Amino acid sequence: MDIQNLVLHLVAKRSSEDLYNMAGTCKLVQEMLNDPEVWQTMSVEKYQWHDDWYGFHEGKIVEFLQKCKEHNNPEIIYR
């Protein structure tokens, strides 16, 4: 695993918000977000898995959680 992937996975495990902030600074990181491993290791600890708990403006959070579920993120599976 190269340094960029290692950093991306470590950030994904700690904070999804920091990961998205990183993606806003670099096209390479944006492309790396398409890696299924990133979605499998992404931290979803602070979000609840109930679509109806989020209002209209929280669609991105629901989309984020669904993408994690599609990639078999273990934190989503066991909720």
Quick structural overview:
The chain has 79 residues and is mainly α. 61% of the residues lie in helices and 0% in strands.
Provide mean pLDDT, rounded.
Answer: 80
Q: How much helicity do the residues have? A: 55-70%
SS-based class: mainly alpha
Strand content: under 5%
Number of domains: 1
| Terminal Cα span | 30 Å
Query: Nearest-angstrom radius of gyration?
Result: 13 Å
The major sheet is characterized as: none
Give the low-confidence spans.
none
**Total beta strand runs:** 0
Name the helix and strand elements from N-terminus to C-terminus, one letter apiece: HHHHHH
Q: How many helical elements?
A: 6
* Apparent shape: globular
Characteristic key phrases:
mainly alpha; 79 residues
Describe the protein's topology.
Blueprint: H1 3-14, H2 16-23, H3 27-32, H4 36-41, H5 59-70, H6 74-77
Organism: Prunus armeniaca
Protein name: F-box domain-containing protein
Would you give an account of this structure?
The radius of gyration is 13 Å and the shape is globular. The protein is built from six helices and no strands. The chain has helices at 3-14, 16-23, 27-32, 36-41, 59-70, 74-77. The mean pLDDT is 80.
